[in-house]
Amino acid sequence: MISVLARCLAGLTTLAAALLGSPAARAFALPAATPARASGLWLIDENIPPSARGPAVRTRKVWRVCLDRKADRALHELDVREDRARVAVDGLRCDDPVYALTDRTLTSTMRCRGALPAAGADITTTLTRMTHFASNQEARSETVMDGGGHGRGRMVSTMRRTGPCPGSMKPGARLLLHWTVNGEETLKGQVRGNIFRQAGEHRRLTAH
Question: Which of 53, 65, 123, 165 has the fewest other C-beta atoms within 10 Å?
Answer without folding.
Answer: 53
